[in-house]
């Protein structure tokens, strides 16, 4: 399943924004860092950017509260 996911992302012609909280207890932040690096290296250079935004652990956003942070929606508008 992961190969299908990566393959789909490689074909995505739009900007990709990855949001991750440092204190995520389910998915290690290194997963998002690795994914970002992979996409930046393997996607066609003509495709729009891939961006990772990390939220510091002091925000207490964990795995499923990023949407509650006041800066999320302005970030989405910028991308």
Describe the protein's architecture and organization.
There is one protein chain. The chain has 3 helices and 2 strands. It has helices spanning 2-11, 29-42, 72-78; strands spanning 16-21, 50-55. The mean pLDDT is 90. A two-stranded parallel sheet has the order 1-2. The radius of gyration is 13 Å and the shape is globular. The protein is of the alpha+beta class.
Q: Topology of this structure?
A:
Elements: H1 2-11, E1 16-21, H2 29-42, E2 50-55, H3 72-78
Parallel strand pairs: 1-2
Strand order of the main beta sheet, please? 1-2
Q: Specify the helix fraction band.
A: 25-40%
Quaternary structure annotation: single chain
Distance between the termini: 27 Å
Counted beta strands: 2
What characteristic shape results from the CA principal axes? Answer: globular
> What is the chain-wise order of helices and strands?
HEHEH
For the largest beta-sheet, the strand count, sense and barrel status come to:
2 strands, parallel
> Radius of gyration from the CA trace?
13 Å
**DSSP summary: helix tally:** 3
User: Which residues sit in consecutive blocks of at least 5 with pLDDT less than 50?
Assistant: none
Tell me what portion of residues adopts beta-strand conformation: 15-25%
| Structural class label | alpha+beta
Mean pLDDT: 90
How would you sum up this structure in a few lines?
With 79 residues, the chain is of the alpha+beta class. It is built from 3 helices and 2 strands, in the order H-E-H-E-H.
Features:
79 residues; alpha+beta
């Amino acid at each position: 399943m992961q190969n299908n996911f990566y393959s789909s992302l490689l074909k995505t012609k739009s900007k990709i924004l990855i949001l991750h909280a440092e204190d995520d207890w389910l998915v290690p932040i290194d997963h998002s860092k690795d994914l970002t690096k992979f996409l930046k290296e393997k996607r066609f250079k003509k495709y729009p950017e891939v961006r990772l935004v990390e939220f510091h652990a002091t925000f207490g956003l964990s795995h499923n509260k990023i949407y509650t942070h006041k800066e999320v929606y302005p970030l989405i508008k910028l991308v």
